[in-house]
Specification:
This protein has helices at 2-52, 63-71, 74-94, 109-117, 120-139. The chain has 140 residues and is mainly α.
């Protein structure tokens, strides 16, 4: 009788823990996905601006429009543009003109912008901007 009681209590505990766990996951997954998409769009827009401000040819690219659909705020867009423009100057100053061979007269601009896209510095900026956006939306 004692074993049966313990077994029933364990089964009920297990079922309750599964139910609680599934509620937790259902609520967090959409928020986590939204955050990841927003941060990616922020960083992608900075990357795009970095390329654009270094005169890398980008024709018929819908990325800025797609990024704006996720970001949804012209103030955020102006921040991404400013960060990309400022970093493009840093890259342009750091990059050296390649000499000799087929690459003479070129700089490694795209690699520099991509390096910044993947940097912890831009991750930190994007996460901070996401938190600001979320706190501002709660106020309104």
């Amino acid at each position: 009788m004692k074993r049966k009681s313990i077994l029933i209590i364990l089964c009920i505990s297990f079922l309750l823990s599964c139910k609680t766990s599934s509620k937790f996951n259902r609520n967090d997954i959409p928020r986590d996905k939204e955050k990841k998409e927003w941060i990616f769009a922020f960083k992608a827009q900075v990357f795009y601006e970095c390329l654009k401000n270094n005169n890398v040819m980008i024709e018929e690219d819908a990325s800025p429009s797609l990024n704006f659909q996720v970001l949804g705020d012209f103030n955020v867009l102006s921040k991404t543009n400013a960060i990309g423009k400022n970093y493009s100057k840093i890259i342009n100053d750091r990059a050296t003109w390649l000499k000799g061979g087929d690459l003479e007269g070129y700089k490694a601009i795209t690699n520099g912008c991509l390096f910044f896209f993947e940097s912890k510095e831009l991750d930190s900026i994007a996460n901070s901007e996401y938190r600001n956006m979320k706190s501002n939306s709660k106020k309104n």
